[in-house]
User: What shape does this take?
Amino acid sequence: MKFICTCARGTEPAVTAELAAFGVDSEVIARGAVGFNSELEEAYRVLRRSRTVGRLLLELGQYEVSSDDEVYEAAKAVSWEDHLEAHGSFIVDAVARGDRWNQRFVALRVKDAIADRFRDRTGSRPNVDREAPDVRVHVHLRDKHLDLAIDIGGGPLHRRGYRQVVAEAPLRENLAASLLWLADWPARAAKGEPLFDPMMGSATLLIEGACMALGIPPASRLRKAPRGWLGHDAEAWESMQSELVELKEEANQAERLPIFGSDHSPLAVRTALNAARLAGVESHMTLDERVFAGVHPPSETPGLFITNPPYGERIGEGSALPELYAQMGDVLRRRFLGWSAFIFSGNPSLQRNIGLKAARRHVLFNGPIECRLLEYPIEEAPVRSESPGWRATSKEAEMFKNRLRKNRRRWEKWAKRQRVDCYRIYDADIPEYNVAIDRYGDEFVLHEYRAPKKIPAGHAERRLRDAISLTLEEFGVARSALHLRVRKRQQGGKQYERREEEGERREVQENGHRFLVNLDEYLDAGIFLDQRPLRRLIQKEAQGKSFLNLFAYTGSATVYAAKGGATETLTVDLSNTYNSWARSNFDLNRMARHQHRIQRADCLEWLKGNHGKFDRILLAPPSYSRSRAMRGDFDLVRDYLPLIQETVRHLATGGVLYFVHHARGFKLDASALPDLDCVDTSKDTVAPDFVRSPHQSWRISKKRKAH
Assistant: This one.
């Protein structure tokens, strides 16, 4: 008997490998089809145990046809009475490809041929049953080639019964199992390696991986015996039952598997835990809620990192995806040395953002979407101590290397004199390398700016790889010390925006003050390095004065004011996270809480009230802001005049307002504020390491009235 296993195109090697594990010798016969010849008992083993097969078909015949009538005649010539009772029921599933064929009409012609054959021979005909037919007939017609078969599995085999809540863009269970076979998971599991999916969704990859490692067959209640098919062998079917029972008993006695998963969505985690429970593998899973870039290896033993991130076809549309893929490469390089990473995606342009060289590529299809499963063996990036003979690969890379070395010598000496250990060492000095590099002690943040459209994507990617390698080489650090960011020109309100990450806070020093920074979680690390001189100015003028910090971020300017002898300070920001961060900065610098208050409030609403007068005020609004906690939105260009006027109401006599922002192209119209003295102080408040990316600042005070 000849059987055909249908599968997702490109997964044929996985299917043949799985069938070989069952003792079935098979071969690829077409894209999306694997065939084997065997007795019915072996076919039943495949039916009840396979996790990669889409459908299991018994081939009845192959025909060359060129018209609907020839389809009818070929189907009518099949001995259907050997497979179906005259009083039974059937349904026809048809797949017809090619311009000449109408799929529904092909199915109708085959249905008519079967009915007419029975009527001609028995005087009666079987019924069509769409819900629970005795026999499901499968028709595949491509160009002139017609295949007729019995679907002895009774329909698609990917359903397992554990996925009650379907994700927005689910990965079919048999495709997930195929990915695991292509990643060599069965052999890895046998060696005790861990399995980890950091963007697990409903955890299909993890559940399939657990079941494969434990030998748990797919839910047998969903794979019923084809009792209505006359070729069914009940004895062969039942002989398989003892084999399945034995497999389940072995699974129940197995030790806990090292299988781990995480997702940023709490709903996904709850859904995954419920599915794991229904699949009987909950005790083998460790799942938690975590944004991607906050993940770390869940095991000291390297293993298989496999994930199916969004790629813009159904979920995850938007500009955040390139950064997410860049984060994947960054996190893998920094934290998963020794692991084998497999990333499955249907968007080649996004995959290029990963920045790693794939060792293997498998082209396969998720439904109609052409995808790639890329394998990345994660190895340590070269550093100076390990690669003294490194050479730049191009003239422009050599230019970048020389500029970076020159900048390093300059800024290291300067930073030592200034008593700072966080500063910018490169800021798009060379047009070909449109990146910025900030140093935080022994850690580095490399910001990749969006390349102009005229620059080919391949050139931009190569230059980014050069920048990463040369930075590691110049400073002699491991890849784990470099944090990659992707920046683009955007509305300034997003300057504080949280990234899809969660990272560790570490301490840095600036002018004798101590601050906490997070190099992973936010686009800005927790302190605006370019405003360093402005903070020093605030400290210099703070003695015996009150200080108000609006849109305060993490309160670094307040620390300076307090250290300068401010009698009292008030720090106002809408974010609970930043207010908590500010408290930590205050504690780090041993600031008395009763003098230095922190208030959570929408600054725009807070300014409308009466909260006293202050000698010095720092106003550092975003260029644009909108959040659920705000009433409406804020646009600096549109709203700056009333904002300044409301803030000036809170100035004490002789007080000074420092107004600073990062909006490009914005100019303050001093003539619209006739009662105020507005002095542009940008040249005095921009740090020397940020002259290529300056902010704008003004010193604003009330004009003295003439007597």
